[in-house]
Write a structure and sequence with these properties.
This protein has 458 residues and is of the alpha/beta class. The protein is built from 14 helices and 15 strands.
Length: 458
């Protein structure tokens, strides 16, 4: 029997040690994807039905700062344990988080060296290319201070003479640079981390093409794959594990009418009026505005909301276009706040699931026809318990202020991402290319990266 030499024993021990270290590193990396404290990194499975909690709304001291009266602010990133550190790919678009809007992560991000940044009074400057009036803001730091941003060392300016020195150039609705800006951008792109961002809340059918390649670093829009996602509304649970509560109210009580719709545009791209008129053949649908016979002045919206709250069980929250993540219908949130069940048309069912409380709305694409939808609404109308099951989400969270300026400022302090800024090689293809919008329903339309079988019924 051959006895191993001391040298071979040492080599063997070193190999075992390296394998052990590698295994622990992999374990830490996997753990980081699951444990990041109060910051959300993944979307909750919206198919789960959780038991109603017995606890009440959390106190201000236990609510994150962006909730109503919230007082819990984030600490610098490096003060978290290694498994709770927020990597850069949890802040800006990344394939690993393709279905996440990262809004909460951005709201809770403070760079590890922020104490030094504040002490040195280093201020990031954002040039509003279209001027201050377009944004309804004032020059300087006011918006960051008044919003009580966790990262507030930023300022706004409309001084075009500073174009060579600013940290970000922000365009609203369209990208129309002057020759000077274009030449400066080409030079600075090589040597600095100056960012250009395009802000756009209109759907692709109503926007202009951008014919300059590699001009935009970041985007701000309602799209979840934008750099700074800017939705018209965003629901956040106080606790992701508590999505239902026992309610002490019958939301169907004293409501004598079925479906209402307030609408002024009768020529939408997605055929919403035709759908509503066919639905009207099978269930009572009261249409207010230019497309119907009833009137409720847009000058007094509170009167219309009150009418919804007291008389109607359902509201048609129909968008004018069916596009990825496009959910702009203000009546969706107002209907939810007023105890009315919205029936939605516009974005894909999974897009609504990412922004609204679970089981709080009905999507038309979950039904084969307007007649099928009408039959289900009649069932709900006759069954108060079933109707009220769509309101169990109340009291479990809030539609939050997503604090656009706070998140822009925080991301401008994210050094890892700024080292090598990303460029949109073909903005038009990303914004309005194939599989972004459909003029029909989503039932027969497959989006890239989405399995239609995953669409659940509300």
């Amino acid at each position: 029997m051959r006895i191993p030499t001391i040298k071979r024993c040492i080599y063997f021990a070193l190999i075992c040690a390296l394998l052990l270290i590698f295994r622990l590193t992999i374990k830490d990396y996997e753990g980081a994807d699951q444990q990041i404290g109060p910051v959300r990194t993944t979307e909750i499975d919206s198919s789960q039905h959780l038991k109603p909690p017995s606890s009440s709304e959390p106190t201000s001291a236990k609510k994150l700062w962006f909730f109503r009266n919230g007082e819990l602010y984030p600490s610098p990133a490096m003060e978290y344990s290694r498994n709770m550190y927020i990597p850069y790919y949890w802040l800006l678009p990344d394939l690993r988080l393709s279905q996440s809007d990262r809004i909460v992560n951005q709201l809770m991000y403070v760079p590890d060296d922020y104490g030094d940044v504040k002490a040195s009074r280093q201020i990031k400057t954002i040039l509003l290319y279209n001027g201050l009036l377009k944004w309804n803001v004032t020059k300087g730091r006011d918006v960051f201070v008044s919003d009580k941003c966790p990262v507030d060392t930023c300022q706004l300016t409309d001084d075009m003479g500073m174009v060579e020195d600013v940290d970000m150039i922000l365009y609203k609705d369209r990208y129309t640079p002057t020759a000077k800006v274009s030449s400066v951008r080409r030079i600075r792109a090589l040597y600095t981390s100056q960012i250009t961002m395009l802000y756009n809340l209109e759907c692709p059918f109503n926007t202009l093409e951008l014919n300059v390649p590699n001009a935009i670093n970041w985007t701000a829009s309602y799209r979840r794959d934008s750099s700074i996602v800017t939705p018209y509304s965003k629901w956040v649970y106080y606790d992701d594990n508590v999505q239902q509560r026992v309610q002490d109210r019958n939301y169907a009580e004293n409501k004598t009418k079925k479906v209402a719709w307030f609408v002024s545009n009768c020529n939408a791209d997605n055929g919403r009026l035709e759908y509503a008129l066919e639905l009207q053949q099978h269930i009572e649908v009261d249409i207010y505005g230019a497309c119907g016979k009833l009137k409720c002045s847009r000058v007094t919206p509170e009167k219309c909301f009150k009418l919804l709250e007291t008389d109607y069980k359902f509201y048609l929250a129909f968008e004018n276009s069916n596009c990825k993540d496009y959910i702009s219908e203000k009546y969706l949130v107002n209907a939810l706040d007023r105890g009315v069940l919205p029936i939605v048309m516009g974005a894909h069912p999974q897009d609504y699931a990412a922004l609204a409380p679970h089981d709080s709305y009905i999507h038309v694409d979950n039904f084969g026809s307007p007649k099928d939808l009408a039959e289900y609404l009649m069932v709900l109308d006759a069954d108060d318990d079933l109707y009220n099951s769509y309101f169990l989400w109340k009291g479990t969270g809030e539609f939050i202020n997503t604090h656009f300026w706070c998140r822009v400022c925080a991301m401008l302090h994210n050094k890892v991402q700024l080292k090598k800024p990303y460029f949109y090689k073909d903005y038009n293809d990303w914004w309005g290319g194939p599989n972004v919008c459909t003029k029909g329903t989503w039932n027969n339309f497959t989006k890239v990266g989405l399995d239609p079988s995953q669409v659940h019924s509300s």
